[in-house]
Design goal:
Blueprint: H1 3-26, H2 34-40, H3 42-52, H4 61-69, H5 76-112, H6 120-148, H7 157-165, H8 169-191, H9 204-225, H10 228-235, H11 248-255, H12 268-295, H13 301-326, H14 330-333, H15 335-338, H16 346-379
């Protein structure tokens, strides 16, 4: 699929995702109306407001209070206006970054993984995951301005960054899904008349080996780094003072895909049930990386890296849905409260998905090269091979 054909759905998807997030943020203020509380209930309205506020242009009460309390003397109004201006700048950067991050990734995915017959489901899931990635990266790059708008940008900067990066993901899950559906629909229209799309012929053994290597990178985070004693050691990393002190929360955000410990103090059945979600992540990632070289129109390192990131995000969503379905507390707290876990772990999925995708691509290239060399050597008659006499 050419770049010209793929650019139309990618641009449309970027605009739609940005517009949906802006609309979601603008709807946050409506939850303060008495009718909303009567219909949804106080707890549900407060939960939804917490999901939508990270995308709202209207500064929350905490920002207004911090802006006013951070001002001193006669310049109080001017300083408060500057802090509120920083918040507005942060939101402008956030929405622009959503569009800027989504379009290139969607363009690559649509071109290498066009939503045609046999690839439709994979393309839909990949674009859904990429919407989550784009939103998370947008929240990350706009976080410094948002922190500064509270008037305490120099206080525990890295823990504050970790806290801000973890916000806004629940709204992204729904808006990214709608965006993926619309993008796939437009991409199917633009793909008509493009002619037969190429398909890589990859040896099954090479594809399995590449998938195993890529999954091993995900397992390093999910099994080794996420083990509580190791995670605690990461948490307690603390360089000497300054803006970059206390990086533990930020490191956990970008390195840990889960959290687990030995079954001490809990029933073995419950412990195994929670570990089933972790096993599901590895199974989904391995299967996706195994199928990805066959589904791509051309196997390249960027395409494999982007595909691995999307596969890791989809695997995380699948494990989170499994935990929601098997957690008995959902009846007590409500499905809205339980759904708050959706979308978590995307920063770590970006980190390890890139590592796993690049490792899988390199392994695949080396393995296929060795296979082709072996096949070429086998086809040469033994009589025509050079003899190395002593």
């Amino acid at each position: 699929m050419t770049y010209r054909r793929a650019a139309i759905p990618a641009l449309m998807g970027g605009l739609l995702l940005t517009a949906l997030l802006w609309w979601a943020g603008a709807s946050a203020q409506a939850l303060h109306l008495p009718g909303s509380t009567d219909v949804l209930g106080g707890q549900a309205a407060a939960e939804l407001e917490r999901w939508l506020l990270p995308w709202s242009y209207e500064p929350p009460a905490s920002v207004r209070f911090d802006a006013e309390s951070g001002a001193i003397g006669d310049s109080a109004a001017t300083d408060a206006g500057r802090y509120l201006g920083l918040y507005s700048t942060a939101m402008q950067i956030r929405f622009f970054a959503v569009f800027a991050f989504f379009v290139p990734g969607a363009l690559l995915l649509i071109r290498r993984l066009p939503p045609v017959r046999g690839r439709l489901t994979a393309a839909l899931l990949a674009l859904w995951a990429w919407g989550l990635v784009a939103g998370t990266l947008a929240v990350t790059v706009s976080a410094p301005w948002l922190i500064a708008s509270h008037g305490r940008g120099s206080y525990r900067l890295l823990p504050q960054l970790a806290s801000v990066i973890a916000t806004g993901r629940q709204a992204l899950v729904a808006t990214a899904l709608v965006t993926a559906l619309a993008t796939v629909l437009v991409a199917r229209i633009t793909a008509k008349g493009a002619g037969p799309l190429p398909q890589e012929v990859v040896p099954a053994r090479a594809a399995r080996l590449a998938a195993t290597v890529g999954t091993a990178a995900i397992a390093l985070s999910l099994v080794v780094l996420s083990y509580q004693p190791v995670a605690a050691a990461i948490q307690t990393v603390s360089p000497d003072g300054g803006l970059f002190a206390e990086p533990g929360d930020l490191l956990r955000t970008w390195l840990l895909l889960g959290a687990w410990d030995s079954p001490a103090g809990v029933q073995l059945g419950d412990w195994l049930l929670y570990r089933a979600a972790d096993v599901l992540i590895l199974v989904v990632v391995w299967w996706a990386l195994r199928r990805l070289p066959v589904l791509l129109t051309r196997v390249t390192v960027p395409a494999m890296a982007a595909g691995a990131v999307c596969a890791t995000v989809v695997a995380l969503l699948a494990s989170q849905l499994l935990r929601i379905a098997t957690d008995g507390s959902g009846l007590r707290w409500g499905i809205l409260h339980m759904s708050a876990v959706l979308g978590g772990g995307v920063p770590a999925a970006v980190t390890w998905g890139l590592v796993g995708g690049v490792a899988a691509a390199v392994t695949l290239r080396v393995s296929v090269g060795r296979t082709e060399t072996t096949a070429a050597t086998t086809l040469v008659p033994e009589s025509s091979r050079p003899r190395l006499d002593a």
